[in-house]
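Comment thread on ticket #2218

A.B. wrote:
> Attaching the input chain for the structure job we discussed in standup.
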Amino acid sequence: MTPVHQKNGHKFSHRQVEIGGRSIHVVTSGNTDNRPLLFLHGFPENWRAYEKVMSLLAGDFYVMAIDLPGVGESAGLAANDKRSIAALVHELILELHMHEVTLVGHDVGGMVVYAYLQAYPDSLASAVIMDVAIPGIDPWEEVKRNPFIWHFAFHAIPDLPEKLITGKERLYFDYFFNVLSAKPESINDEARDIYSAAFTTPGSLKTALGWYRAFPQDEKDNLSVKGKRIETPVLYIRGKQEYGDIDTYLKGFRESGFQNINGAVIEDCGHFSFEEQPDKVASLIEKFKKANEPAVI
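C.D. wrote:
> Ran it. Output below, let me know if you need it in another format.
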């Protein structure tokens, strides 16, 4: 029997999908006849990050979220570069026979969406990228120099972060939720416990740190295709309290080859926009989808 839980009147079904011999945890809600949205989380979270937004969108869309490979209930990959993760996501979409998918990614998940667009540009209906800088794409170098982004360098150190964080996951993750949010209270204790638990499964913390250790490879991969024309409609979302000006990010996307990208800033919001302002995120995605629906003849 497929495990099910309910939230805000919506049923969420959990299942494991085998992809290339690896088991991926997939959570779904809504009518399978509706247009599909597939959500990819970032650090330090799992699929549960999108539960609020999925509840709001499940009436009009078929909503799906996964634990990224190596986190929570999903088996890991041999590599943690975003191109490799994007390849697995592509295999998942094919395995589930989904069409006209909108891929939504936050933080590291947004980096995966970018890599996916570069590798499989014609396989998506549209894409949403939230609250992230893309390795190798302006203003990436400026972001890396920002002293408030100290954890990029810390996570890249071999072995030491695992030794310091293991057993203190909740304490460590709380720092990011409290400092990077405009509304830390929106990420409650239940959610924080769930996220911490997702990174205590064997190898999961090492996987998450591996996302950062793969940044040099991500930079090379993204720069190797810079300038490739991407016609897919893309929405880029940032919280108002996020570091940097959204126009700088949009300029970087366009210079990298994105031909059809627009941006949106959410007021009273920091890095975790889908938890801090789920209603606004859901509304932006819905409006974006409606604006990019093919004309009915």
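A.B. wrote:
> Thanks. Noting for the ticket: Residues 82-95 form the longest helix (14 residues).
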